Amino acid sequence: MDKPFITDQKYLSQDFTSSKLAKGEYENCIFEGCNFSDSYLDNQNFMECEFIDCNLSNANIRHTTFKEVTFSHCKMMGLKFEDCNTFLIDFSFINCNLDYSSFYGLTLPKQQFVSCKMIETDFTEANLKNATFDDCDLQGAIFSRTNLETANFKTAFNFIIDPEKNTLKKAKFTKEGIIGLLKKYDLTIGP
User: H helices within the chain, ranges in order?
Assistant: First the structure.
C-alpha cells in the first residue's frame, strides 16, 4: 500500500500522543508546537519539513526518513537516530534539547548543531567530519571511535574527548577547550 503524499501543510499545536500522525510522505510541511512525545513516527517520510517548538522526546523513529529537515527549539530527548532510514539522511538542529539521544554509527558529514543541549548524547562510531557544534553543551556526551576530522568545537563547552580514541585531525578548538581533550590525564593547568 502506497503512503499518501502530503505537501505544503501546516500542523499547529496538535497532540499526536493519543492520535497518531497519519502514515505518509510529508514534503515542505511545518509542524509547530506539536507533541509527539512517546509516540510512533516510525516508517514516515519527511522531506524539506520544519519542526518548530515540538516535543519529540522518546518517539519511535525507526525506519523514518529525514531529508533536509530542520528542527528548531524542539525537545528531542532519548531519540535513537541510528534507527532512522539513513539513506539521504539530512537534518539540522537549532536550539534543541537532544539529551540522552543517540547518533551511534551514523555518517553525518557537515552536520550542524547550533545552541543545542546534548547531555550524555551518544556519538560512538559516528562520522561527524566537518560537523559544527556551535554554542552546544556537550556535558557527558560520548565520543568513542568517532571521526571528528575538521569538526568545529570553538564555541562548544563541557565536552570531554579522548584524542587517542577519536579521529581529531584538523578539528577546531579554543585554548580553553583544550582542557576537554586532556581531562583523562588528570592534569592541573594554571594561568
Answer: 179-182
